[in-house]
Amino acid sequence: MMQPFKKVVIVAKPHQDLVFHLEKTIAVLKRFAIAYILEQTAAELLQSQEYCAREDIARDTDLIIVLGGDGTFLSVARQAVEAQVPVAGFNLGTLGFLTEMKKEFLEERLTDIFLGKAKISQRKLLQIDYQGRLYTALNDVVINKGAIARIVKLLLKIDGAKVAEIKGDGLIVSTPTGSTAYSISAGGPIVSPEVNGIIITPICPHSLTFRPLVVRDSSTITVQLLTQNMDAYVTIDGQTVLPLSFEGTLSVGIYPKQLHMLVTPEINYFQLLADKLNWGM
After folding, report:
1. 83 and 130 share a domain?
2. H helix or E strand, kind and range, residue 113
3. Do 209 and 131 reside in the same domain of the chain?
4. CA distance 229 to 130
5. Quick count: other Cβ atoms within 10 Å of Cβ 17?
6. 70: annotated active-site residue
7. Which of the 8 DSSP states describes residue 158?
8. Tens-place pLDDT, residues 3-34
């Protein structure tokens, strides 16, 4: 059984109804006698002088509550993973696959969490080794060309074996969690988060025969830029952008730690897909 929460941090994205949702969240926390601290954005909206900096949100806390969208969720994910602190995401926008819980049921879902009815969905991350530095991604790492309308050529290897020289706009390597992010827009498959795999999706490939791949998550994926005089970039979770030069190489595998994402019994992954993608269920 999940341990009771004693202290939480609230992270929020500016939104027209944010004060209303913050006040509802705090009311539930007070009802359960749970201590809380606001991240700076939320504190400023409530005109509070007490807050924690973004880099300290996972320190000395039992739970991170995110009020916002998937971008806000991604911005706190790395810290949550390193500290192994669970995250509960409430969607204040429209789509939101990471912020699974709806704002309309904020009080009900928080009550479920603090009554011990929530469960943890373990989400794997990618580890990217690039230029001697390690990065992590909950959704994806994207290798793509710059603004000039030219085809980029990338050499793809899996576990050291050459797979293909891919010509097109770029390549996406994603986790199952990230299969519903950029990858799905590029024609990649939807993969349930419980699947132990890594998805490789070409962006506008200049070949009708190269299709998205799903490989085992013990694989090491290597991508090398083969196009000279080309502005290309590596984008990690849409948050970090790094330049990629000719013959530059990055390798991607699975990160040893996982994200603990809180979901309540009402959350069903396939119902979530139907709801977000308008499948008519």
Report:
1. no
2. helix 106-114
3. yes
4. 20
5. 10
6. yes
7. E
8. 689 999 999 988 778 889 999 999 999 999 99
* Angle, in degrees to the nearest 10, between helices 106-114 and 18-31: 30
* Same domain for 205 and 133: yes
Nearest 5°: the CA angle 33, 38, 43 is 125
Q: pTM for the full model?
A: 0.92
Give every CB contact of residue 252 below 8 A, 6+ residues apart in sequence: 126, 127, 128, 129, 141, 173, 198, 220, 221, 222, 223
Domain count, the chain: 2
pLDDT of residue 231: 86
Identify the active-site residue in 17, 56, 62, 70: 70
Look at phi and psi of residue 19 and say left if phi exceeds 0, alpha if psi is from -120 to 50, else beta: alpha
Q: Look-up: residue for tokens 């490939």?
A: 205
* H/E segment holding residue 102: strand 101-102
Q: pLDDT at residue 281 above 60? A: no
Neighbours of 224 (CB within 10 A): 18
